[in-house]
Amino acid sequence: MSTHDEARRKFLVGAAAGAGAVATGGVSSEVLAQVQAPVQQVAAEHAAHTTAGKGLGAFLNAEFTEAVAAFTERLMPGAPGKPGARDANVVNYIDLALAGAYSDMQDFYRRGLASLDAYCRKTHNKPFVELNSAQQDEVIGALEQGKASEFTWPSQQAFFNTLRTHTIEGMFADPVYGGNKDFAGWKLVGFPGAHPAFTAADMQSKEAFTGAAYLGLQSQAPRNRG
Question: Is this prediction's pTM over 0.85?
Answer without folding.
Answer: no
